[in-house]
Specification:
The chain is built from 2 helices and 11 strands, in the order ααβββββββββββ. The protein is of the alpha+beta class and 289 residues long. Among the domains are: 31 residues; 71 residues, no CATH class; 44 residues, no CATH class.
């Protein structure tokens, strides 16, 4: 009770200092810092806006796309040269109508065909030194679909009507070759040559060699063999010459003639013997030794 009376008495006493006023807000150095940060923020916003407008202007941003890139109903359209620093994934790449499509690279261009498990099935690598193709089969066809060239692990097929080799050294076959016809271009020579080994021509029904507009020459270092197992060897010509056949010996007392007969030794060797009234082959058998 005494405490309450004291409090009431104190509150009813008149104040000589007057009502106290409390200021609300930021004053002093805090206010100056706030204005500085607001000004700095406005400057950054203006600079950012100016940079954004400059980038849009330089990159040529439009409603249809950016720079040489245009967005169309069919997809993306690139005009001019384009550079891709990362892998490009696309369903289809086409050039503009009437223009070529170029792929340029400082090292190589690689095209991979993948399956559903992302395993490489076919690969084409075009590098500075070679063009490499990896796959089960390689084919080259005409526009109509005719096969021109085919290669796989078993065989190589040339489907063109004529195979022409323009190299000065011709064509080298380390093993055998099977063909129904070998001929040269018109007015050109045909040479079948084996520099260090033998040359064998075989056919189940015969081998025919024709030179309709020139000479035919067969040359070897050791021996030339014409063999027919079941038939005959026929030399059909207006003139048949054997200029280097050895001559058999003859007696000096006999009359020399310009007529000779061809004799055959038991080993198959041929030689010339001076003709007489009878056969002189038995006399000149020294050639067969």
């Amino acid at each position: 009770m005494p405490q309450e009376q004291y409090t009431h008495h104190r509150s009813t006493m008149p104040s000589s200092e007057g009502p106290q006023v409390y200021k609300v807000g930021i004053y002093g150095w805090r206010k100056r810092c706030l204005y500085f940060f607001v000004l700095l923020l406005m400057i950054l916003i203006l600079v950012n806006l100016a940079m954004t407008i400059w980038i849009l202007k330089v990159m040529n941003f439009t409603i249809d796309g950016m720079g040489n890139l245009r967005i169309t109903e069919k997809g993306l359209k690139l005009e001019g040269d384009s550079e891709f620093l990362q892998p490009l994934y696309a369903k289809e790449i086409q050039s503009r109508p009437g223009n070529a499509l170029y792929f340029k690279s400082a090292r190589n261009v690689t095209v991979n065909i993948l399956n559903e498990q992302t395993k490489v099935l076919t690969r084409l690598i075009t590098g500075p030194k070679a063009v490499e193709a990896y796959g089960k089969k390689f084919e080259v066809k005409t526009v109509s679909g005719k096969l021109l060239f085919s290669a796989d692990s078993n065989e190589v097929v040339v489907g063109a009507e004529r195979l022409r080799v323009l190299g000065a050294e011709g064509t080298v076959f380390p093993k055998s070759i099977e063909t129904p016809n070998v001929r040269a271009d018109p007015f050109k020579e045909l040479r079948l040559e084996s520099p260090t080994r033998s040359l064998v021509m075989e056919a189940p029904k015969g081998v025919e060699i024709n030179a309709e507009a020139g000479n035919m020459e067969a040359t070897c270092r050791t021996e030339l063999r014409l063999e027919s197992k079941d038939g005959e060897i026929k030399l059909d010509a207006a003139k048949i010459k054997l200029p280097r056949l050895p001559h058999g010996s003859y007696t000096p007392t006999g009359t020399r003639q310009k007529v000779f007969e061809i004799c055959v030794c038991a080993n198959g060797r041929l030689f010339l013997s001076q003709a007489g009234t009878g056969s002189t082959c038995q006399i000149n058998t020294s050639v067969c030794l």
